[in-house]
UniProtKB/TrEMBL annotation, chain A:
GO terms for molecular function: GTP binding; GTPase activity. CDD domains: Rab (cd00154). Residues 191-216 are annotated as: Disordered. This is Uncharacterized protein. Belongs to the small GTPase superfamily. Rab family. It comes from the Eukaryota.
UniProtKB/TrEMBL annotation, chain B:
InterPro entries: FUZ/MON1/HPS1_longin_1, FUZ/MON1/HPS1_longin_2, FUZ/MON1/HPS1_longin_3, Mon1. Residues 215-313 form the FUZ/MON1/HPS1 second Longin domain. It comes from the Eukaryota. One of its GO terms (biological process) is protein targeting to vacuole. Plays an important role in membrane trafficking through the secretory apparatus. Belongs to the MON1/SAND family. One of its GO terms (cellular component) is Mon1-Ccz1 complex. It holds the Pfam family Fuz_longin_3. Residues 343-443 form the FUZ/MON1/HPS1 third Longin domain. This is Vacuolar fusion protein MON1 homolog.
């Protein structure tokens, strides 16, 4: 089956819920006791969309100032950025903007931008309006999503959209760092991490020559 | 790696940390400040004043960095006073060590650009307070590296260090509780997970075999339940217990290591205070709660180490070591009463050459938290009595109100025993001989006596 393997970096201030989002999506759980990430954490997940498998390599960064100098090593060669802010804290929205300009300056390949306003369950304390965030996402050519890691709302959309955009990106001739190859269906994949493809065929042809690009 | 860690590529990365006024997180702190200004004077709040122990960190310019209880922001005046005290004494080419005021002891530790202060009503010794402050300092260095800590204050004397420590306060909080409940800090030693030495050897050998092709891997450390399972190291380096304590503290206070593989910069202050190492940190598997740290000086090693980790886990599963670790973790701990040595309530035994210790699980009369704390204080006093400098006291026997304490320091081991209060010297000595026999018999299981190198 056609497989697209991409690197996703999750950026945003400390405490906006980056780790909670990723753990909610990949680990299917929420912990109130999650401690601040130290450095960065690495997750992988597979999403099947039609006849394509998208393998995401997710780098969840810490968002603390002392790790600033390390962040480039996570966005270097990234194909998508999930830029997360907390809708109840305006400064976290501003910090997204700084990340975006840093990415625009330093990443030369096309990149998927996905802005995520998290903690919608705290809607009564909202400081960033949906319109403003949406407008900003439009301005930078990205998409805007809102989510609650606590209530498990809107997170699936974020990842599925990222996967779909990576598929489009894989058709863009400017994209060099996405890995695209054909793989034999593995029977070992975890069903909980597979979405959007109830009847995906496990008998696909192997054609290593087709569309194969090397990663970094 | 062949030419020392100072030239590691990791150093360069940290070298370019930029600290501009308008950096991203600064607004966060402003926000916090505004909130705090509105609150009342914390110095007048009785609950705050009556805390048994306060710990403060400030910059040498008097800027608040950390307070164990209450927000530093509300204590600006107090921090000013502490800074004034330190610099007043410094002006006369002297260093302030401690102040005694009634039942309150204040200890100071000035380290590089920061001042650490402990204010205690617990009756503990100044030395012990300073030891704790030193651990706190080590924790700060571990988070920032000494290079970074020094540089930010050189660049700007009134730098607000909380910006860089954001998210790490809990490491300090946790460390303080840790040092106040675990005897390992006092002893400068770590506890191992008891298991047959042959089982441990299989685990170490598995790690060695799986990592043989990886360059720049300095330490592999496997821990569970706050105890060491094994350490594999590059031959020319050693892992100091103080660094292991920092690692234990980090793993213990970070739930975030559980769901993923992490790539964590960590500075081991005794090993190399100037630079970060890069740690691949992960738990072995969902069915085995042991945490594996692979520490490299190379920041681009993540995927190599991730692969090595997978190999290690697969092999450990196949040779039944995961099961063995779980078994060791679930085996009931030994209590002093299991040893059947009359009069002995509890003891601590430190194996000097390997900086490891063992002590039985606390049991009656040390069940309540206050009683356990009291016992640790007794050990602290005993420890400082035997180690008092300028004396050649190697054996101490103290008959106290509620227990009898015996401390014995030799070149090979240190032994601290708690007896019932009425024990005679003769039966105490008898008991000690039995105890040492038992330790001799068990040492292969309780300690890691042979070193494993890559
Ligand atoms: N109410 C609410 N709290 C959340 C949500 N997501 C995360 N949190 C909390 O926000 C804090 C920081 O979360 P974390 O995932 O560590 O943030 P990170 O620093 O961006 O990785 C934690 O206490 C979480 O429990 C959410 O959707 N709603
Ligand atoms: Mg996080």
């Amino acid at each position: 089956m056609r497989t697209v393997e991409g690197k996703v970096v999750v950026l945003g201030s400390q405490g906006v819920g980056k780790t909670s989002l990723v753990v909610r999506y990949i680990g299917k759980m929420f912990s109130h006791h999650i401690s601040p990430t130290i450095g960065a954490s690495f997750f992988t997940c597979n999403i099947n969309i039609d006849d394509t498998r998208v393998k995401l390599q997710v780098w969840d960064t810490a968002g603390q100032e002392r790790f600033r100098s390390m962040v480039p090593m996570y966005y270097r060669n990234a194909n998508a950025a999930l830029l997360v802010f907390d809708i109840t804290q305006y400064f976290t929205f501003n910090s997204i903007k700084k990340w975006v300009s840093e990415l625009e300056r330093n990443v030369d390949e096309p990149m998927v931008y996905c802005i995520v306003g998290n903690k919608t369950d705290l809607g009564t304390h909202r400081k960033v309006s949906r319109e403003e965030a949406q407008q900003y996402a439009n301005d930078i050519g990205g998409k805007y999503f809102e989510s609650s890691a606590l209530h498990d709302e809107g997170i699936e959309d974020v990842f599925v959209n990222t996967a779909m955009e990576l598929i489009s990106l894989s058709k863009d001739p400017l994209t060099r760092s996405l890995r695209i190859y054909d793989s034999v269906e593995s029977t070992l994949r975890s069903p909980s991490l597979t979405h959007y493809d109830p009847n995906d065929s496990s008998s696909s042809e192997i054609d290593p020559a087709q569309n194969s690009k090397q990663c970094c | 790696m062949s030419d020392g860690t100072k030239a590691s590529p990791g150093v360069g990365v940290i070298g370019c940390v930029s600290l501009k006024e308008d950096d991203i997180e600064s607004m966060e702190i402003e926000d916090k400040k505004r909130k705090n200004d509105e609150e009342e004077d914390i110095l007048l709040v009785p609950e705050w004043k009556e805390k048994r122990k306060h710990i403060f960190i400030l910059s040498s310019a008097g800027k608040p960095i950390y307070s164990r209880h209450g927000s530093e922001d509300k204590l600006v005046t107090l921090f000013g006073v502490m800074q004034a005290l330190v610099s007043f004494v410094q002006d006369s080419q002297d260093t302030i060590h401690s102040i005694q005021a009634g039942n309150v002891t204040i200890a100071f530790l000035t380290k590089g650009p920061i001042i650490l202060v402990s204010v205690s009503r617990t009756g503990e010794s100044v030395n012990n307070m300073k030891l704790q402050l030193l651990y706190v300092y080590n924790q700060v260095v571990s988070v920032l590296t000494l290079t970074q800590l020094t540089r930010v204050f050189e660049q700007r004397g009134n730098f607000d260090l909380r910006r860089l420590l954001a998210g790490s306060e809990r490491l300090i909080d946790h460390l303080l509780n840790f040092t106040e409940t675990q005897p390992g800090f006092l002893l400068g030693a770590v506890k191992c997970l008891p298991m047959a030495s042959s089982t441990r050897d299989v685990i170490s050998q598995t790690i060695i075999n799986s990592c043989s092709k990886i360059k720049n891997l300095v330490f592999a450390i496997l821990i569970a339940d706050n105890k060491l399972i094994t350490v594999v190291k590059m031959k020319k380096y050693n892992l100091h217990p103080a660094d292991l304590h920092i690692i234990f503290n980090m793993v213990n206070s970070s739930e975030s290591f559980k769901p993923a593989e992490s790539w964590t910069p960590i500075c081991l202050p005794t090993f190399d205070a100037s630079a970060y190492m890069h740690g691949h940190v992960s738990y072995l598997s969902e069915d085995c709660e042991a945490c594996l740290l692979l520490l490299s000086i190379d920041r681009d090693m993540f995927f190599n180490l991730s692969e090595a980790k997978q190999t290690i886990v697969d092999k450990l599963r196949r040779n039944n070591s995961l099961e063995a670790i779980n078994e060791a973790l679930h085996r009931p701990s030994i209590c002093a009463s299991d040893l059947n040595i009359p009069n002995v309530w509890h003891f601590l035994y430190k194996y000097n050459s390997v900086s490891q210790f063992w002590g039985p699980k606390l049991e009656a009369p040390y069940v309540k938290k206050e009683e356990q704390e009291r016992l640790l204080h007794l050990y602290e006093k005993l420890h400082s009595t035997v180690h008092k400098s300028g004396r050649t006291l190697k054996l101490v026997f103290q008959q106290l109100q509620t227990e009898t304490m015996l401390g014995w320091v030799t070149s090979g081991f240190e032994l601290y025993v708690t007896f019932d209060p009425l024990v005679t010297k003769k039966s105490a000595i008898n008991a000690i001989n039995k105890l040492l026999n038992w330790m001799k018999k068990e040492e292969d299981r309780l300690f890691i006596l042979n070193t494993s190198n890559f």
